Amino acid sequence: MPTSYLSNDRIYLRAVEPEDLDIFYRMENDPALWEISSFTMPYSRYALTQYIENLVNDIYTDKQLRFMIVRRNDHAVLGAIDLTDFVPLHSRAAVGVALLEEYRGNGYAKDALSLLCDYAFGFLRMKQLYTHIPIDNEASRSLFGKSGFQDCGIMKAWLQVGKAYKDVVMMQLIR
Q1: For residue 32, is it within any domain?
Q2: In the chain, % of residues over pLDDT 90
Q3: Residue 159: enclosing H or E segment and its boundaries?
Q4: Per-residue pLDDT tens digits for 4-40
Q5: Report field, pTM of the whole predicted structure over 0.70
Q6: How far, CA to CA in Å, does 162 sit from each of 35, 48, 83?
Q7: Residue 159 bridge partners (DSSP)
Q8: Which domain holds residue 88?
Q9: Minimal CA–CA distance to 144: which of 122, 125, 129?
Q10: Is 174 part of a structural domain of the chain?
Q11: What's the mean pLDDT when you consider all of the chain?
């Protein structure tokens, strides 16, 4: 596999390692990210350790792939990017990206998304990628839009946020 699938001059994507536990703990327990997930409570370090230890990191086995986003010049872990809900029959998967707050706004998410799309379409030969974004998350909608994803529908009252419900935009990129 060419290394260019998972790296560029600024970042590289790598598999999850046991030393990523603290980053996972921080990201998975950030209430600001819970809105877009199905989390109902924080994850324990034990549960996250079990997840890391049991991760096969094969999209056909796990039906997902998680990559850590790492800055090339100092090897700082910036966040994670995922392919989830993989359906081999239809050759599609959902995409999610989460950067730690201090690294946002520097183009790292765009770099990571570009690498992930190249990998999914070039190496895995997927047909399409999609994402669900809260309608008011302009930063994420812009990121995916600039990366070639197109709006393809609105899911009404898709996410419960507090006592209210929020619409979600579905975006997809088709090879």
Answers
A1: yes
A2: 67
A3: strand 150-161
A4: 789 999 999 999 999 998 888 888 877 666 666 666 6
A5: yes
A6: 9, 25, 27
A7: 166
A8: 3-125
A9: 129
A10: no
A11: 90
User: Above 50 in pLDDT, residue 1?
Assistant: no
Answer for the pair 151, 175: CB distance below 8 angstroms, yes or no.
Answer: no
CA distance 141 to 53: 33
47 lies in a domain?
yes
Number of folded domains in the chain? 1
Residue 138 lies in a domain: no
Note the pLDDT of residue 91: 94
- Give residue 34's pLDDT: 66
Which SS3 state, helix, strand or coil, does residue 10 take? Answer: coil
CATH of the domain at 43: 3.40.630.30
Coil, helix or strand for 169?
strand
- How far lies 129's CA from each of 27, 35, 147, 152, 154, in Å? 23, 21, 12, 12, 16
**Please, what sign has the CA dihedral across residues 81, 30, 144, 102?**
negative
DSSP codes, 69-135: EEETTT--EEEEEEEEEEETTTTEEEEEEEE-GGGTTSSHHHHHHHHHHHIIIIIS--SEEEEEEET
Q: State the pLDDT at residue 150.
A: 97
- Tell me the β-bridge partners of 71: 11
